[in-house]
Amino acid sequence: MFDVVVVGGGIVGLATARALLHARPGARLLVLEKESGVARHQTGRNSGVLHSGIYYRPGSQKAAMCVEGRQAMERFCSEHAVPFDRCGKVIVAVDERELARLAELETRAAANGVRAERIGPARLREIEPHAAGLAALHVPETGIVDFSGVARALVAELEAAGAELRLGHEVVGVDEHAQGVTLATDRGEVATRVLVNCAGLHSDLVAALDGVPHEVQIVPFRGEYHDLAPSAAALVRHLIYPVPDPELPFLGVHLSRGIDGGVHVGPNAVLALRREGYAWSAVDARELARLAAFPGFWRMARRYWPVGVVEVYRSVNRAALARALARLVPGVAATDLVPRRAGVRAQAVGRDGALLDDFVLRETPRAVHVLNAPSPAATASLVIGRSVAARALERL
Question: Among 188, 331, 359, 364, which is 20 to 30 Å from 388 by CA?
């Protein structure tokens, strides 16, 4: 019997496993991952941004964990030779209506301990010569990193410490009892004293197998990315973001130079038609039926359908996406956009239709279920992992 089994080989699951072994050296620990490799979904399909912590409501878990987590991630990358760059970014207000939101972000930055400088058009052009706006916030502590590289470094550290990683093992049943938890996988049973569910896009399904009440459901949103063609890449030096809509947990389509040197555009946010729906053709009727049976989905749809229409239009019309980008960088044209692989965000939705924008955990006597780990989860993963590990250790 294992002491702890972590379900999910994304960055949060791996960071939790690492924290467990740091707190309890020699513990019998297993990570189960249904794919043939780690970091195949949210971890390996995001913008690769090390967030500063400027966006998040002061006092929220996200705000505190992001600031501390970015610092911890930079140290980890330095120690494990994972490339990163604290390049900074600008958040640009392009019309008068966005200035009040920009001021609110400046206030949040101060409350969260994040350096942010309000700048005008001249200073903006010094930092990003091709960007345009009425005003901007320059956030020098934002960075970029390869989170897949971080995941590989975490695996190497875990294996060196004696942890076991089983790839290609999907959890299909959970039997929690007084002595521990028996997990049924598609390749046999596993017994453990404590279960930690970090299954990301499937976290609510694993929790349901353990009898956790169906109060939260994962609704998958596909984020589609493009690259700027080499002929247009010089338009962006580092990271250029719009002022986000405070009613939504998404940051808006932005331009970012990745750690690979290319300039990436995205993501948008359109409803995916399956949990790993990386294209419009990826459809799962059973998953759609599950969504349709959840009252929170319809309440969410009624509230946000106008935003959804705009996002779908930009998905199918590259010229519309280019026009949105040209508000920030006027030189961008539709012919500059080269499609690249998409990601899917595991957005937790409550029964009231609310898009949950902070971390959500559910606990049972022998299990900890991470039901929502939204952005900046990758940035803050090492700190999130310590918090989740502490709850799991209370059950040993």
Answer: 188
